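Case study.
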Amino acid sequence: MLRVMYFEQLRRIGPFLIALCAMAAALPVLSCSGLLAGGAASESFAVLEAAGRVSMYYPMLSCAVGLIIGPAGWQTDQEHGHVYALSLPIPRWHYALLRLTTGVLLVLPVVAALSLSALLTSALVTLPPGLQTYPLPLSLRFAATSLVTFSTMFMLSSASSRSFLIGAGALFAAFVFDSLFAASNQLDYSVIAELLFGTRSPFSFFMGVWTLIDV
Amino acid sequence: MSERVPPDAPPRRGAPVRTAVVSALTTAAFVVAGLDAHAQRPTQYDHLREYWATRSRAATARWDEAHRAADTEFTDSVRVGPMLFLAPSGLAATNRTLARLADSAYSATWLPETGGWIRRYEMRERSVDVETVAPSGETVTHQRTQLMLLLREPDGRMRESASTTATGADSLWPIAWQEAQWALKSRATAQLAPELRTWIGAAVPVERPGAIDWVAGWKELVLYPSLPARSCSAGDVRACRVALALVSEADPVRNWYDPALRQVLAQRWLRSFRGNERRVQFSNRTDQVAPVRACANGDDDACVQFLQDRALGANMVEPGPKVLRALLVRFAFTRGNDSSAKRQAAYAPGATVEERLSQASGLPFDELVRQFAVQLRAPRQARPSRVPARLWASSLWCLCVGALSLRSTRWRV
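After joint prediction, the assembly is written out as follows.
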């Protein structure tokens, strides 16, 4: 059943998946394009700056992975009123687990494309002294954020309208309360943002240095 | 058991729209948060560090509290000429310093009346994660000294001038002098020994360097285009002495740089020049850009000419970043506990920079530089250790969220 679900979902998002893989493979190459083209390697600052210009696209791409693959797992069921799922002699959790596994399997090619590209690019470039390539931490960061985004989107897509409204309402109320609290206490920062992106949060991976090249 | 989707089931319109809206909103939140974070670019590291530091401080230190304290707590005062400084009675030493400061610094006749106060207080600050530069869970307590002065401007208006600084017990003096000097707009010179002040090249708060400061120092060193800086970052302690501008050099342009690095300096100069091109067009420097362009294109003779020209690149000729010197001063002056030795190191005349730093730290200078170099390299070695903790957090999140999506007693119709 997993195989059938996998190919059904692959057919649905195949073109998007190819595009995501291509973008994932292109980013490390773009961040070192000057060095790969045989440019001067003396200026560490310029090399770092060129890599930095591309670095903002890594988290955006990992968000896109979650955005596209997460909801796609439930799209067929939602379009057809869950008739197919209800006709199966398996409990819901089993069915949802199959959908979840299928999604994770579809995230992996994008992560693999980025990892391979990062490793190859790192092997090919000659960096100025003091700079290093970090293909493994970058790949781990990308894999983690893609999976975090994917799982979040998967959960949101699996929820009923009522659950979604309760969740969204709670979130909205929290943001309003946060703004009012900050305004009344003359704070210029958001407590929620700190909780979301603080060190112990799973979303903290979105922060930090998203770059293949660093000191 | 059929494994195909029934072809005759009517498609539902509402669910995909809702999913798309939820997806778009969530993704937009992630993207905005990611863009707003600034952390994606290592070159914006310092900016982000300041950003979070400001946010952390805003939560714990507020001026209105300071004002209330000034009204109620201060019982002692020091009057020097027309100036009145209010201070808590417990800070006798601070009062004396302030009196000395006022004696020496107050000379401008356009300040007919000045009042102010100084206080020392504890400030709680969240420590900052080295990698994400976001506040971590831990809280650290700093001793801070706040100096607030009321200045009367020449036109008669009163202006409030405040400066706050973190202090170690005996490292206060250089900061107090410099900041008070700034606050009083006096022409009096700072009391720090001239050779030390010239060598540092900037005002240095003598505060123990934190992990973020070491990371920033390391980045500056690695990115600095000079041979001593590169050798120092590669682990050569003797090169670190050169990079700290402690070894004089007869021909720095040729000995601190190779042709490629001289070219890099020209490229950096041109980059900053381009930013100011409109402004510079009105000056007579436009014609002088030709040798810089020639240098950037690989003409090494032009590079030497450019870097020896006082009007162009001579001020770029440094063996290492200034930040490194400031960091060494902070490192040396926050080691050890001999406060009289530190004061002597900061103010006593007739000693070299090496002797002063050695005296302040209580270490032989070579050992001080060695320990400094080790400390400087530490953040780089510590960097990968942050990844596993976040991986665990992410995995846990995926498991929890995955489990939540599995948990249901009915179909989501």
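Observations recorded in class. The first helix of chain A runs from residue 2 to 31. The first strand of chain A starts at residue 132 and ends at 133. We will return to this complex in the next lecture.
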